């Protein structure tokens, strides 16, 4: 892996508030795929998957899965599958350098396209994705739990198809929803794979960014949203809840790419920071320190990046979708 571009602000985000949970007791799985546990109610209903630790250093997902397994979260309708996505990378997590060990050979959230069919590609993550594919192919609703580098409210990344928008509007524990082109042109992510990426298919994948990677609050937020998700897709009965905050629906208008691999934030911005006016200062790009300004009025900054690979993005500018603020 190429070295990360680090600075003083980045180093403020390297404190790990909790230890990674031991997942070794789940290694065998119960359907013939390591670290995959599936439970069928024998009643009609969808097949629902909750996945965590697709990235080895996003350790909150493992804690959430273990809690749900230990608390015997089981479907009343349909089927629930719990998937530890990349356990080999997770096993290498080091609290002293938590930004490392995101993956072993390749980002497993970028190998869901032609890599799966390439017989010469025998990287660790590609082999794991191939092992997961038979079960993923049968999933109707997927919640893929991630965490993010910056602080701020959780955000769900989804396809802009009707089925996804209709579902996400009911998961009121999710405060921010993001659609649109979210990355540079790269390889296929799990949330865009097969049935999830088909605009005419009712299958839905949600990539949840539950909070900052190593803050304990990400566990609580992710677990709350995971339970809400299971209720909304119909495998668990709905529980009465206090009225949720309004859900903000955004779409990406610009990916922030630094010039020459150099970028410095003007200050420490949280995920979802709102800028009322165009031309607000986000940071400085390139050796000439060119100002990076918000491109529109009423602009949001989404998922600030602090451990950036050379050439990688620094975040996304987004706008609110008219008529898409759910009560």
From TrEMBL:
Molecular function in Gene Ontology: hydrolase activity, acting on ester bonds; metal ion binding
Listed Pfam families: AstE_AspA_cat
Cofactor entry: Zn(2+)
SUPFAM superfamilies membership: Zn-dependent exopeptidases
InterPro entries the record matches: AspA/AstE_fam, AstE_AspA_cat
Domain Succinylglutamate desuccinylase/Aspartoacylase catalytic, first and last residues per copy: 44-148
Keywords (A to Z) from UniProt: Hydrolase, Metal-binding, Zinc
One CC-aspect GO term: cytosol
Protein name: Aspartoacylase
Organism, as annotated: Boseongicola aestuarii
